[in-house]
Design brief:
The chain is of the alpha/beta class. It contains twelve helices and twelve strands. The chain has a six-stranded parallel sheet, with helices on both faces.
Protein backbone atom coordinates (compact mmCIF):
# COMPACT_ATOMS: atom_id res chain seq x y z
CA UNK A 1 0.00 0.00 0.00
CA UNK A 2 1.17 3.54 -0.70
CA UNK A 3 0.59 6.52 1.55
CA UNK A 4 2.21 9.93 2.01
CA UNK A 5 4.29 10.41 5.14
CA UNK A 6 3.41 13.43 7.26
CA UNK A 7 5.34 16.51 6.19
CA UNK A 8 6.63 14.86 3.02
CA UNK A 9 5.46 14.73 -0.57
CA UNK A 10 7.45 11.56 -1.24
CA UNK A 11 5.10 8.57 -1.21
CA UNK A 12 5.84 5.77 1.21
CA UNK A 13 5.40 2.11 0.47
CA UNK A 14 4.52 -0.18 3.36
CA UNK A 15 5.23 -3.90 3.36
CA UNK A 16 3.25 -6.11 5.74
CA UNK A 17 5.45 -9.02 6.80
CA UNK A 18 3.42 -12.21 7.39
CA UNK A 19 2.87 -12.98 11.08
CA UNK A 20 4.47 -16.40 10.57
CA UNK A 21 7.84 -14.77 9.83
CA UNK A 22 9.83 -13.79 12.96
CA UNK A 23 11.01 -10.23 12.49
CA UNK A 24 14.31 -11.02 14.20
CA UNK A 25 14.99 -13.65 11.50
CA UNK A 26 14.25 -11.06 8.81
CA UNK A 27 15.99 -8.05 10.33
CA UNK A 28 18.81 -9.95 12.03
CA UNK A 29 20.16 -9.85 15.57
CA UNK A 30 20.43 -6.23 16.69
CA UNK A 31 18.97 -5.28 13.28
CA UNK A 32 22.17 -6.28 11.43
CA UNK A 33 20.27 -7.20 8.26
CA UNK A 34 18.25 -3.98 8.43
CA UNK A 35 21.48 -1.99 8.60
CA UNK A 36 22.75 -3.73 5.46
CA UNK A 37 19.49 -2.98 3.65
CA UNK A 38 19.65 0.70 4.63
CA UNK A 39 23.20 0.98 3.31
CA UNK A 40 22.43 -0.87 0.08
CA UNK A 41 19.47 1.18 -1.13
CA UNK A 42 18.82 4.87 -1.70
CA UNK A 43 15.70 4.71 0.43
CA UNK A 44 14.62 5.42 3.98
CA UNK A 45 13.58 2.30 5.85
CA UNK A 46 11.36 2.39 8.95
CA UNK A 47 10.13 -0.64 10.88
CA UNK A 48 7.21 -0.78 13.25
CA UNK A 49 6.01 -4.16 14.41
CA UNK A 50 5.65 -6.32 11.31
CA UNK A 51 5.38 -3.30 8.99
CA UNK A 52 8.34 -2.08 6.93
CA UNK A 53 7.89 1.35 5.37
CA UNK A 54 10.11 2.41 2.47
CA UNK A 55 10.44 5.91 1.03
CA UNK A 56 12.74 7.19 -1.70
CA UNK A 57 13.52 6.66 -5.37
CA UNK A 58 10.79 4.47 -6.82
CA UNK A 59 13.23 2.05 -8.47
CA UNK A 60 15.20 1.64 -5.25
CA UNK A 61 12.02 1.18 -3.22
CA UNK A 62 10.83 -1.49 -5.66
CA UNK A 63 14.16 -3.29 -5.43
CA UNK A 64 14.17 -3.14 -1.63
CA UNK A 65 10.64 -4.55 -1.61
CA UNK A 66 11.77 -7.42 -3.82
CA UNK A 67 14.63 -8.07 -1.40
CA UNK A 68 12.23 -8.34 1.56
CA UNK A 69 10.04 -10.74 -0.43
CA UNK A 70 13.06 -12.89 -1.29
CA UNK A 71 14.30 -12.98 2.31
CA UNK A 72 10.83 -14.00 3.48
CA UNK A 73 10.82 -16.79 0.87
CA UNK A 74 14.23 -17.99 2.06
CA UNK A 75 13.11 -18.02 5.70
CA UNK A 76 10.06 -20.09 4.72
CA UNK A 77 12.35 -22.81 3.37
CA UNK A 78 13.76 -23.23 6.88
CA UNK A 79 17.12 -21.82 5.88
CA UNK A 80 18.55 -19.22 8.22
CA UNK A 81 19.26 -15.76 6.86
CA UNK A 82 22.73 -14.38 7.56
CA UNK A 83 24.48 -11.14 6.65
CA UNK A 84 26.06 -13.03 3.74
CA UNK A 85 22.62 -14.18 2.56
CA UNK A 86 21.39 -10.58 2.52
CA UNK A 87 24.49 -9.35 0.65
CA UNK A 88 24.27 -12.18 -1.90
CA UNK A 89 20.56 -11.53 -2.46
CA UNK A 90 21.21 -7.82 -3.01
CA UNK A 91 23.99 -8.66 -5.48
CA UNK A 92 21.70 -10.94 -7.47
CA UNK A 93 18.92 -8.34 -7.57
CA UNK A 94 21.38 -5.71 -8.79
CA UNK A 95 22.28 -7.87 -11.79
CA UNK A 96 18.76 -7.28 -13.13
CA UNK A 97 18.32 -10.97 -13.77
CA UNK A 98 14.91 -12.61 -13.90
CA UNK A 99 16.10 -15.36 -11.56
CA UNK A 100 15.00 -15.06 -7.96
CA UNK A 101 17.62 -14.88 -5.20
CA UNK A 102 15.51 -17.31 -3.15
CA UNK A 103 15.81 -19.89 -5.94
CA UNK A 104 19.57 -19.37 -6.15
CA UNK A 105 20.32 -19.33 -2.44
CA UNK A 106 17.99 -22.19 -1.47
CA UNK A 107 19.23 -24.75 -4.01
CA UNK A 108 20.60 -27.49 -1.75
CA UNK A 109 23.18 -29.84 -3.25
CA UNK A 110 24.41 -31.82 -0.29
CA UNK A 111 23.98 -31.94 3.48
CA UNK A 112 26.48 -33.42 5.89
CA UNK A 113 26.80 -33.12 9.66
CA UNK A 114 24.33 -30.26 9.81
CA UNK A 115 26.01 -28.30 7.05
CA UNK A 116 24.36 -27.72 3.68
CA UNK A 117 26.31 -27.04 0.50
CA UNK A 118 24.51 -24.79 -1.98
CA UNK A 119 25.42 -22.21 -4.64
CA UNK A 120 25.76 -18.68 -3.30
CA UNK A 121 25.80 -16.65 -6.52
CA UNK A 122 23.90 -16.64 -9.79
CA UNK A 123 26.91 -17.86 -11.78
CA UNK A 124 27.42 -20.69 -9.29
CA UNK A 125 23.79 -21.76 -9.73
CA UNK A 126 24.19 -21.75 -13.51
CA UNK A 127 27.39 -23.78 -13.16
CA UNK A 128 25.65 -26.36 -10.96
CA UNK A 129 22.73 -26.57 -13.39
CA UNK A 130 25.16 -27.05 -16.28
CA UNK A 131 26.66 -30.05 -14.45
CA UNK A 132 23.17 -31.55 -14.23
CA UNK A 133 22.48 -31.01 -17.93
CA UNK A 134 25.80 -31.73 -19.69
CA UNK A 135 28.25 -34.61 -19.85
CA UNK A 136 31.37 -32.40 -19.93
CA UNK A 137 31.43 -29.10 -18.07
CA UNK A 138 34.21 -26.53 -17.74
CA UNK A 139 34.29 -24.21 -14.73
CA UNK A 140 36.75 -21.36 -15.31
CA UNK A 141 37.41 -18.61 -12.77
CA UNK A 142 39.66 -17.23 -10.04
CA UNK A 143 40.45 -18.66 -6.62
CA UNK A 144 37.59 -18.97 -4.16
CA UNK A 145 34.72 -19.08 -6.65
CA UNK A 146 33.71 -22.62 -5.68
CA UNK A 147 34.61 -24.25 -9.01
CA UNK A 148 36.08 -27.43 -7.56
CA UNK A 149 34.11 -27.44 -4.33
CA UNK A 150 30.72 -27.39 -6.05
CA UNK A 151 31.86 -29.96 -8.60
CA UNK A 152 32.89 -32.28 -5.80
CA UNK A 153 29.58 -31.75 -4.03
CA UNK A 154 27.78 -32.75 -7.23
CA UNK A 155 30.06 -35.79 -7.51
CA UNK A 156 29.23 -36.94 -3.98
CA UNK A 157 25.55 -36.29 -4.65
CA UNK A 158 25.72 -38.45 -7.80
CA UNK A 159 27.51 -41.23 -5.91
CA UNK A 160 24.99 -41.21 -3.08
CA UNK A 161 22.13 -41.29 -5.61
CA UNK A 162 23.87 -44.23 -7.33
CA UNK A 163 23.99 -42.35 -10.62
CA UNK A 164 27.69 -43.28 -10.78
CA UNK A 165 29.71 -46.06 -9.20
CA UNK A 166 32.81 -44.05 -8.34
CA UNK A 167 34.39 -40.63 -8.14
CA UNK A 168 37.75 -39.88 -9.72
CA UNK A 169 39.54 -36.70 -8.67
CA UNK A 170 42.68 -35.70 -10.48
CA UNK A 171 44.98 -32.74 -10.96
CA UNK A 172 48.36 -32.24 -12.64
CA UNK A 173 51.28 -32.29 -10.19
CA UNK A 174 53.09 -29.77 -12.36
CA UNK A 175 54.49 -27.92 -9.36
CA UNK A 176 56.62 -30.98 -8.59
CA UNK A 177 57.82 -31.47 -12.17
CA UNK A 178 61.16 -33.18 -12.40
CA UNK A 179 61.78 -32.47 -8.73
CA UNK A 180 59.35 -35.24 -7.73
CA UNK A 181 62.13 -37.80 -7.47
CA UNK A 182 64.04 -35.64 -5.03
CA UNK A 183 61.17 -35.37 -2.54
CA UNK A 184 61.35 -37.70 0.48
CA UNK A 185 58.99 -40.64 1.00
CA UNK A 186 57.03 -43.07 -1.14
CA UNK A 187 55.39 -42.02 -4.41
CA UNK A 188 52.08 -41.59 -2.58
CA UNK A 189 53.72 -39.39 0.05
CA UNK A 190 55.38 -37.32 -2.67
CA UNK A 191 52.20 -36.53 -4.59
CA UNK A 192 49.83 -36.15 -1.61
CA UNK A 193 50.68 -32.45 -1.03
CA UNK A 194 49.48 -31.64 -4.56
CA UNK A 195 46.22 -33.55 -4.02
CA UNK A 196 45.58 -32.29 -0.46
CA UNK A 197 42.98 -29.64 -1.47
CA UNK A 198 40.83 -32.42 -2.92
CA UNK A 199 41.07 -34.45 0.28
CA UNK A 200 40.16 -31.35 2.31
CA UNK A 201 36.98 -30.86 0.30
CA UNK A 202 36.02 -34.51 0.71
CA UNK A 203 36.25 -34.16 4.48
CA UNK A 204 33.65 -31.38 4.31
CA UNK A 205 31.23 -33.56 2.38
CA UNK A 206 31.56 -37.04 3.84
CA UNK A 207 31.94 -38.62 7.24
CA UNK A 208 35.74 -38.67 7.74
CA UNK A 209 35.56 -42.26 8.99
CA UNK A 210 34.13 -43.46 5.67
CA UNK A 211 36.70 -41.77 3.43
CA UNK A 212 39.56 -44.28 3.98
CA UNK A 213 37.17 -47.16 3.24
CA UNK A 214 35.93 -45.51 0.05
CA UNK A 215 39.50 -44.82 -1.04
CA UNK A 216 40.60 -48.37 -0.26
CA UNK A 217 37.67 -49.82 -2.21
CA UNK A 218 38.38 -47.58 -5.20
CA UNK A 219 34.97 -45.94 -4.92
CA UNK A 220 36.83 -42.67 -4.61
CA UNK A 221 40.16 -42.29 -6.38
CA UNK A 222 42.45 -39.29 -5.97
CA UNK A 223 45.41 -39.41 -8.33
CA UNK A 224 47.73 -37.27 -10.47
CA UNK A 225 46.65 -36.68 -14.05
CA UNK A 226 49.47 -38.86 -15.37
CA UNK A 227 47.68 -41.87 -13.87
CA UNK A 228 44.73 -41.37 -16.24
CA UNK A 229 46.66 -42.23 -19.41
CA UNK A 230 45.50 -45.38 -21.21
CA UNK A 231 42.29 -45.76 -19.17
CA UNK A 232 38.60 -45.67 -20.11
CA UNK A 233 36.51 -44.40 -17.20
CA UNK A 234 32.97 -45.80 -17.18
CA UNK A 235 30.14 -45.03 -14.72
CA UNK A 236 32.26 -42.40 -13.00
CA UNK A 237 32.10 -38.76 -12.01
CA UNK A 238 35.51 -37.40 -13.01
CA UNK A 239 36.91 -34.04 -11.93
CA UNK A 240 40.08 -32.47 -13.31
CA UNK A 241 41.25 -29.66 -11.03
CA UNK A 242 43.89 -27.00 -11.80
CA UNK A 243 43.38 -27.70 -15.49
CA UNK A 244 45.24 -24.54 -16.49
CA UNK A 245 48.39 -26.54 -15.77
CA UNK A 246 47.69 -29.12 -18.45
CA UNK A 247 49.25 -28.97 -21.90
CA UNK A 248 46.89 -29.25 -24.90
CA UNK A 249 48.05 -32.85 -25.31
CA UNK A 250 47.25 -33.67 -21.67
CA UNK A 251 43.84 -32.04 -21.95
CA UNK A 252 43.03 -34.14 -25.02
CA UNK A 253 44.27 -37.25 -23.22
CA UNK A 254 42.04 -36.53 -20.23
CA UNK A 255 38.88 -35.72 -22.19
CA UNK A 256 39.22 -38.89 -24.26
CA UNK A 257 39.16 -41.01 -21.07
CA UNK A 258 35.39 -40.44 -20.96
CA UNK A 259 33.49 -43.72 -20.83
CA UNK A 260 29.84 -44.74 -20.86
CA UNK A 261 27.68 -43.45 -18.01
CA UNK A 262 30.30 -40.93 -16.92
CA UNK A 263 30.41 -37.18 -16.39
CA UNK A 264 33.42 -34.87 -16.43
CA UNK A 265 33.99 -31.50 -14.80
CA UNK A 266 37.15 -29.55 -15.64
CA UNK A 267 38.08 -26.62 -13.40
CA UNK A 268 40.86 -24.05 -13.54
CA UNK A 269 42.01 -20.45 -13.54
CA UNK A 270 43.64 -19.31 -16.77
CA UNK A 271 45.36 -16.43 -14.93
CA UNK A 272 47.36 -18.85 -12.75
CA UNK A 273 49.38 -20.99 -15.15
CA UNK A 274 52.45 -22.69 -13.65
CA UNK A 275 53.65 -24.39 -16.84
CA UNK A 276 57.20 -23.81 -18.09
CA UNK A 277 57.72 -20.90 -20.48
CA UNK A 278 56.68 -21.78 -24.01
CA UNK A 279 54.15 -24.42 -22.94
CA UNK A 280 50.58 -23.52 -23.87
CA UNK A 281 47.81 -24.16 -21.36
CA UNK A 282 45.33 -26.80 -22.47
CA UNK A 283 42.57 -24.93 -20.66
CA UNK A 284 43.22 -21.78 -22.67
CA UNK A 285 42.82 -23.48 -26.06
CA UNK A 286 40.15 -26.08 -25.32
CA UNK A 287 37.23 -23.63 -25.50
CA UNK A 288 38.21 -22.63 -29.04
CA UNK A 289 38.46 -26.30 -30.00
CA UNK A 290 35.24 -27.58 -28.40
CA UNK A 291 32.87 -24.61 -28.72
CA UNK A 292 29.75 -25.72 -30.54
CA UNK A 293 30.06 -29.39 -29.63
CA UNK A 294 26.81 -30.68 -28.18
CA UNK A 295 26.75 -31.68 -24.50
CA UNK A 296 29.84 -29.61 -23.63
CA UNK A 297 29.34 -26.50 -21.48
CA UNK A 298 31.74 -23.66 -20.62
CA UNK A 299 30.98 -21.63 -17.50
CA UNK A 300 32.79 -18.49 -16.35
CA UNK A 301 32.99 -17.33 -12.75
CA UNK A 302 34.40 -13.97 -11.69
CA UNK A 303 35.54 -12.06 -8.61
CA UNK A 304 31.85 -11.45 -7.87
CA UNK A 305 31.47 -15.21 -7.29
CA UNK A 306 34.22 -15.50 -4.67
CA UNK A 307 32.71 -17.13 -1.58
CA UNK A 308 35.68 -17.14 0.76
CA UNK A 309 36.27 -14.28 3.17
CA UNK A 310 34.81 -11.13 1.60
CA UNK A 311 38.32 -9.63 1.32
CA UNK A 312 39.28 -12.41 -1.11
CA UNK A 313 36.85 -11.03 -3.69
CA UNK A 314 38.28 -7.55 -3.30
CA UNK A 315 41.83 -8.91 -3.57
CA UNK A 316 41.03 -10.84 -6.77
CA UNK A 317 39.33 -7.80 -8.30
CA UNK A 318 42.26 -5.55 -7.34
CA UNK A 319 44.78 -7.91 -8.96
CA UNK A 320 42.62 -8.14 -12.10
CA UNK A 321 42.54 -4.34 -12.28
CA UNK A 322 46.30 -4.13 -11.72
CA UNK A 323 47.07 -6.71 -14.41
CA UNK A 324 44.72 -5.02 -16.88
CA UNK A 325 46.23 -1.55 -16.43
CA UNK A 326 49.95 -2.00 -15.77
CA UNK A 327 52.58 -1.45 -18.42
CA UNK A 328 54.46 -4.48 -19.78
CA UNK A 329 57.44 -5.18 -17.54
CA UNK A 330 60.61 -6.40 -19.17
CA UNK A 331 61.56 -8.13 -15.94
CA UNK A 332 58.33 -10.13 -15.86
CA UNK A 333 59.96 -13.27 -17.18
CA UNK A 334 62.39 -13.23 -14.26
CA UNK A 335 59.70 -13.10 -11.60
CA UNK A 336 58.95 -16.35 -9.77
CA UNK A 337 55.67 -17.92 -10.73
CA UNK A 338 52.97 -17.90 -8.07
CA UNK A 339 51.10 -21.04 -7.13
CA UNK A 340 47.44 -20.68 -6.19
CA UNK A 341 46.03 -22.59 -3.28
Amino acid sequence: MTEPLAGSETPAHTIIVPASIPMVALLGPQDEHLTLIEKAFSADVHVRGNEITLRGDSAEVALAERLVDELVAIIRTGQGVTNETVERAIGILRTETQERPADVLSLNILSNRGRTIRPKTLNQKRYVEAIDKHTIVFGIGPAGTGKTYLAMAKAVQALQAKNVNRIILTRPAVEAGERLGFLPGTLSEKIDPYLRPLYDALHDMLDPDTIPKLLAAGTIEVAPLAYMRGRTLNDAFIILDEAQNTSPEQMKMFLTRLGFGSRMVVTGDVTQVDLPNGTHSGLRVVEEILTGIEDVSFNRLTAHDVVRHRLVGHIVAAYDHYEANREPDETESRRPRSTRR
